[in-house]
Amino acid sequence: xxxxxxxxxxxxxxxxxxxxxxxxxxxxxxxxxxxxxxxxxxxxxxxxxxxxxxxxxxxxxxxxxxxxxxxxxxxxxxxxxxxxxxxxxxxxxxxxxxxxxxxxxxxxxxxxxxxxxxxxxxxxxxxxxxxxxxxxxxxxxxxxxxxxxxxxxxxxxxxxxxxxxxxxxxxx
Length: 172
What we know:
Blueprint: E1 28-36, H1 40-48, H2 53-56, E2 60-67, E3 70-76, E4 82-93, E5 97-102, E6 109-119, E7 124-134, H3 138-147, H4 152-169
């Protein structure tokens, strides 16, 4: 099923390729949001520079650009493990939306979108993250991860709060 079928935001003229996680198949589904007291253009610009994300998101070890909207991700997993994948931005609407999917061969198949919605007359942004992924081992992997305290929704919520704090602390 295409990325567009995931209802994660596509528009006419964007590429439609196979998503990293087909619709209704991701074992883990997370949707979290936070309101950041910064305009969407500032929040988008900071998020779009993917190399910035590991400073704010504690489960991310590194994000390395590969060119052509592709990047290599390394994430800390449970019990000191790491998982890696190459991802691709498949939909990028400046100041509004970034949509991605993992590429074939990923340790964790994933897809999602980050929405940047103007609030308070454009002086604030509702940042909404929607993602789906299949952990290694499917349901068994999910159960294993939960034994080590890994809660994906809580991790995303905490990461968004860290991102909010970082963005609001700055004078731009």
